[in-house]
Structure prediction request, 316 residues.
Amino acid sequence: MTALNPLKTVGEQIAEIYRIHKNLGRRLAWQKAIARLAETGIAEPERRANAYPHQLSGGQRQRVMIAMALAGEPRLLLADEPTTALDVTLRLQILDLLTELQQRNGMAVFLITHDLHLVRRFANRVLVMENGVIVEDAPTEILFNSPVHPYTRKLLGSRPERRIQPAIPGLPAAKPLLLADNVLVRYPRISSGIRHWLKPGWHVAVNHASLVLGKGQTIGIIGESGSGKTSLANAVLGLVNHQGVLEVEGLSWQQARRGGKTIRKAQRRKIQAVFQDPYSSLSPRLTIEQIIGEGLQYHHRICRPNSGASEFLPCW
Ligand SMILES: Nc1ncnc2c1ncn2[C@@H]1O[C@H](COP(=O)(O)OP(=O)(O)OP(=O)(O)O)[C@@H](O)[C@H]1O
Ligand SMILES: [Mg+2]
Prediction:
């Protein structure tokens, strides 16, 4: 996702490949770019082609990257976790697209993934790697049916498991931790030419969403790529504007902002995020220690002394 140029529209970035590597004219290159985007399952490809990377969802950006890679009709495709941000139906669509290209051009694919189902469905051979060493190499079905190496067996035998705790007793049910009522998030719609100046439109990303999340509970949000999951999360974090009610422990971001710096800071500390795209959420200018330390310093006044001591102490 950080491979996309933030200063160019995604359509231009795909078309560039046709212009540079295939010597096509601008108009034809643009048409081909849109056709490639459409193949990856992006809705309204003509409109999306005019979007900048930050205006697309995580899965849409990943599909742009796939479209770019396939535009050059490569002989060898190195695909590093190509479908992690996609839901199952889209994942299958991308795999069908890769299979079709393989059949048409004889393209070879080096597929790097954690997803065992994906490997089983797509790969001819599977290599299992542990600590830099390829510990097992076998045709797919043989590897899945009779794994030899203990690490492969462990991989195939592990299933994510979570024992759900019963709701914590004695908590007042009336006071939810997160309350969303009729939340609406919208972004300005990009359309080209004079139309845009006369009547700017809106793209509604979250449409009247309501939910209640109690203390100690987990809510899972599932939905196809571009359905508004991250937009809703960003609204909870106060990173995008929204309409409707959105409260964390009874306090909305509007109230927190009006209440001044101390209240705003306290509210910020209560809500933390793990972003979908780690590369663009970590500053490339800071070390990992500085990145983690920054939060401790800002919210808890805990610092690491310069003397090289390994412990964090209260800041002076
Ligand atoms: N900054 C923005 N400007 C304009 N449109 C945006 C912006 N951010 C997101 N969108 C659009 O809003 C819609 C919802 O995006 P969102 O990122 O919330 O989807 P998502 O459900 O998280 O998808 P994914 O599973 O692909 O991450 C998408 O159609 C996306 O193109
Ligand atoms: Mg998302």
User: Anything to note?
Assistant: The beta strands are 76-80, 108-112, 125-130, 133-139, 178-189, 201-213, 243-248, 302-303, 313-314. The longest helix spans residues 88-105. The pocket of magnesium ion (ligand 2) is lined by residues 57-58, 229-230, 276 (CB under 6 Å). The CA atoms of residues 186 and 204 lie 4 Å apart.
